Fold this protein.
Amino acid sequence: MTRHRVVIIGGGFGGLYAAQALRRSPVDITIIDKRNFHLFQPLLYQVATGGLSPGDIASPIRAALRNQSNAEVLLGEVRDIDPNARTVALQSGRLVPYDSLIVATGATHSYFGNPQWEQFAPGLKTLEDATEMRRRMLYAFEAAEMEPDAALRRQWLRFVIVGAGPTGVELAGAIGEIANKTLREEFRRIRPEEAEILLLDAGDRVLSVYPAELSASAEKSLIKLSVRTRTKVKVTAIDADGVSVETPTGPEHIPAKTVFWAAGVQASPIGRLLAERTGVALDRAGRVLVNSDLTVASHPGIFAVGDLAAITQDGKPVPGVAPAAMQMGQYAARAITARAQNKPAPAPFRYWDKGSLAVIGRASAVADFGSVRFTGLMAWLAWLFIHLMYIVGFQNRVLVFIQWAFHYFTFNRGARLITGSR
């Protein structure tokens, strides 16, 4: 008897947790990814700001599934999906057959119809994005050190971050720490602590998804790190000379040599491919509208999970965060296991919101666990513990813990390397 064949596209949180949840199921698993590693995206900003090295937050998918005999890993990029023949075609020409398909390809940046902005304001979704941000940030201080013109020197020392959600806040806080602590006394012609860090958002407050009191606390912590927040400003253009914005008082241009993007995301292009092949609808961000069991309409053998899936719960969309992707992957695994064993399907998917955390800087964070909310050192310690717990690979957990401890006592960031080319 042929075993149930499960193909998983994407080795992120949704895909990897689905594969691991199927380890004791009577199925054969093929996980396909164009990268050979699982990336712990919540800590990408620390790579971007020199706190961690890329290898600290990435773990080979093969290593994560080393002891799972029913799983194989294919390094490849998906070219097509045929829901009638139940095959996945790779760019190499190989066809991979499936009985159940889990699509977990995540999301990428959204520049709201202005893709030309990306060359001037990189986002933060991949290791390449993080190392490019790190290069631009560190080079800005070096360029300022060599710049004789005072006006241009100020532009090199001005950092603009677009988007005041968790990623934007974490980036701004980290750059503030670097300027005020890490780089102090390392330059001779500039004072890094005089760097101007601007955090822009079109909303009326930072961390708008958090309760107002936590947003206010986060803003106070950012001010201590010399971060200036500007809300109710809409970006209208980005180029090599800076950012143009529309403010309540009119248009304005902010001269800056370094701009980072943390304002929006959209689903991966696989979402559009899935829509073309199955007829499923997409939302405005390109995410697949799934049924309550995470399957695609009229195709019960295809599941979409993580940032690729759009599903509402109690009238609100399930957020595109790592815990949601993990839970979706595990749910899809349970549903497939029940199907393979001819057992009743599980109840509809429900996301268990365990709370939200955002770190601002050293011993400073905000935590929202529903009825329990707190800030400061305890929130920071909770953030550290939870992130360490979810990093894939024991070795990576140990390395990250050591790096964090060293940074806490010395303020040093050991991965301050300028790599790549301008």
